[in-house]
C-alpha cells in the first residue's frame, strides 16, 4: 500500500511539474469600429397644402396652419437647421397653360417654430413668424449631446387680393438644410 501511495505521490508531482513547466500563451485581441459624425434631417409632410382660399381668408389677410410640418433631426454632434426660398417669387400654375412666376414675393410665406410637443434640448431661432427669404435663416440649433430632436413648424401665407387675383395653384419651393456646427 505504501508503494501505491509513493507511486501516486510521484505521479502527482510529475503532473504538477508538467503544468508548471508549460508556459502560458495569450493573444490580446481588439474589436473596433469607426463612429463617424452623422446628421439626419426628416420633414413630414414635405408638401403643405392649404387648399382653396375663401373671401374670408382674403379679408383676414392670411392663411395659417399650426403644426403644419414636423421636423426631426438625429445627430451625434452639434448642428443647426436653416430655411430658405428656392425662388424670389411664388409660381402660379394656371388651370390651363404653363406655370410662371408671379409678383407674389417669397416673403409672403412666413414660418415659425412651435415649441409645443418638441423633443430634445435645443434652441429655437425662428420664434416669431418670419418671411422666407433667398438667404438662409436659422430655424433651430442644438446637439450638445447625441440624440433625437423634434419640433413643429407653423405656417402663415400672406394674402393680397390685388396681387393674388389670378386663379390657379400658387406654390413656392423652399429648402431646409441641416449643417454641422464646428
Nutshell version of this structure?
With 182 residues, the protein is mainly beta. Helices cover 14% and strands 45% of the residues.
Question: Which characteristics define this entry?
Answer:
mainly beta; 182 residues; 45% strand
Question: What is the secondary structure topology, with strand pairs?
Answer:
Blueprint: H1 2-21, E1 39-44, H2 55-60, E2 62-75, E3 79-85, E4 89-93, E5 100-105, E6 109-119, E7 122-124, E8 130-131, E9 137-142, E10 147-158, E11 169-171, E12 174-180
Antiparallel strand pairs: 1-2, 2-10, 3-9, 3-12, 4-5, 4-11, 6-8, 6-10, 7-9
Question: Mind explaining what this structure looks like?
Answer:
The structure is a single chain. The chain has helices at 2-21, 55-60, and strands spanning 39-44, 62-75, 79-85, 89-93, 100-105, 109-119, 122-124, 130-131, 137-142, 147-158, 169-171, 174-180. By secondary structure, the protein is mainly beta. Strands 1-2-10-6-8 form a five-stranded antiparallel sheet. A hairpin with a 6-residue loop joins strand 4 (89-93) and strand 5 (100-105). The N and C termini lie far apart (84 Å). The model has no long low-confidence stretch (mean pLDDT 85).
The main sheet comes to: 5 strands, antiparallel
Name the strands of the widest sheet in spatial order.
1-2-10-6-8
Give the distance, in angstroms, between the N- and C-terminal Cα atoms: 84 Å
Summarize the amount of helix as a percent range. 10-25%
Number of strands: 12
Low-confidence stretches: none
Question: Roughly what fraction of the amino acids lie in strands?
Answer: over 45%
Structural class: mainly beta
DSSP summary: helix tally = 2
Whole-angstrom Rg: 33 Å
Q: What is the molecular shape?
A: elongated
Calculate the mean pLDDT score and round it.
Answer: 85
Q: Strand-and-helix sequence, N→C?
A: HEHEEEEEEEEEEE
Amino acid at each position: 500500500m505504501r508503494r501505491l501511495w509513493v507511486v501516486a505521490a510521484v505521479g502527482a508531482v510529475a503532473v504538477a511539474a508538467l503544468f508548471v513547466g508549460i508556459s502560458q500563451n495569450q493573444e490580446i485581441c481588439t474589436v473596433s469600429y469607426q463612429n463617424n459624425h452623422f446628421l439626419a434631417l426628416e420633414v413630414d409632410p414635405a408638401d403643405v397644402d392649404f387648399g382653396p382660399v375663401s373671401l374670408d381668408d382674403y379679408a383676414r389677410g392670411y392663411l395659417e396652419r399650426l403644426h403644419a410640418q414636423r421636423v426631426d433631426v438625429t445627430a451625434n454632434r452639434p448642428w443647426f437647421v436653416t430655411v430658405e426660398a428656392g425662388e424670389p417669387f411664388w409660381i402660379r400654375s394656371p388651370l390651363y397653360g404653363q406655370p410662371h412666376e408671379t409678383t407674389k414675393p417669397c416673403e409672403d410665406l412666413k414660418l415659425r417654430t412651435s415649441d409645443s410637443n418638441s423633443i430634445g434640448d435645443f434652441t429655437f431661432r425662428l420664434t416669431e413668424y418670419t418671411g422666407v427669404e433667398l438667404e438662409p435663416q436659422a430655424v433651430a440649433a442644438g446637439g450638445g449631446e447625441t440624440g433625437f430632436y423634434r419640433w413643429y413648424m407653423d405656417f402663415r401665407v400672406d394674402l393680397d387680393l390685388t396681387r393674388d387675383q389670378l386663379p390657379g395653384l400658387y406654390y413656392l419651393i423652399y429648402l431646409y438644410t441641416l449643417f454641422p456646427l464646428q
